[in-house]
């Protein structure tokens, strides 16, 4: 008991020294405010984190919308805005991901995505510029670095601080481990009202610098507000990270009045280029509407109707891999195994690097007892997004069916490292016990 006093004192000294070191090395100049601020994320770290997360979050958003014309167009508009931002030298990238919801998000380092659902609701290039400029504003003002620093320090001073005091030191490794967890959650952050207000202000400023009509910004906010009232679920993701308050809307309208009439012209909205570059998107929009309707049917168990709707959707947009993915899922649930395999193979052929296509192909092929091809598809899925429990599980099921117990056991053990509850975990645990790998 008597030894706890020195131990606590030593732990407190270690924690204090770490905090001092962090404050000494963690100073950065905010490029927007030109003021020094405490930051634990260097620009190099920011770029590295964004580069690592960008492919993953693109796959989580159903991959790229497969229209090179639109992708190049959005990249061009985004780069035009980024070049007049407060951080023009960041390695910006812009893409259109294939989610149907209305959303846009920025990763650290200037990696910015906008959904197909969002672009399909816009009417001119200035509105698209408004969405992208707002996300650039978050990057310029170092909002990711602020979030990262706040969460890391909070962890240090609470949970990690307590463990250090009890253990009497050993801060470095724990801090780095905790920082890694915080980094992985960066895109799940919720911006503060002040950050949203600042991104609004910067977004409109960048639009004007890039010669866009700033009225496009107000139009976009009005459109989001209208869609949010009409279909709240469509904007759930966007509003969870970008709360649209009445005050923000009023402030944007006031800000618009500060800009002169020079750019507030119909020409500066750039309707014609937008319509030209979104032609294919508008062409396949009805097919995606059918897909979204079918997804609702799948969620309520009406797989037969979902399969019928998706057959119509693929007839309207035969080159859209994601629609074929959902068609394969619906056909599988409707008991049409052979048709599901054909649809899944079609999806893979159209978009070989789409995780969802490879994964669904692996599952439907497993159900049809085509274990070798199923393994091939799941192996490719695992290369695209590594170590997903469901992929590992079906890989194990295939190995088991092929009589390769050791490989199956390794897969099941990997699943249990990530999932401890539910039917999948229970199956893996039971098999490992039966085979003598666990007691």
From TrEMBL:
Pfam families registered for this protein in UniProt: Peptidase_M48
Free-text cofactor note: Binds 1 zinc ion per subunit.
GO annotation (BP), single: proteolysis involved in protein catabolic process
Gene3D superfamilies: Metalloproteases ('zincins'), catalytic domain, Tetratricopeptide repeat domain
Keyword Metal-binding assigned: yes
Record domain Peptidase M48: where: 70-251
Family annotation (PANTHER family): METALLOENDOPEPTIDASE OMA1, METALLOENDOPEPTIDASE OMA1, MITOCHONDRIAL
Protein name per Swiss-Prot or TrEMBL: Putative Zn-dependent protease
GO MF annotations in UniProt: metal ion binding; metalloendopeptidase activity
Keywords per UniProt: Hydrolase, Metal-binding, Metalloprotease, Protease, Zinc
Source species of the chain: Desulfosoma caldarium
GO CC, alphabetical: membrane
Family designation: Belongs to the peptidase M48 family.
Cofactor(s) recorded in Swiss-Prot or TrEMBL: Zn(2+)
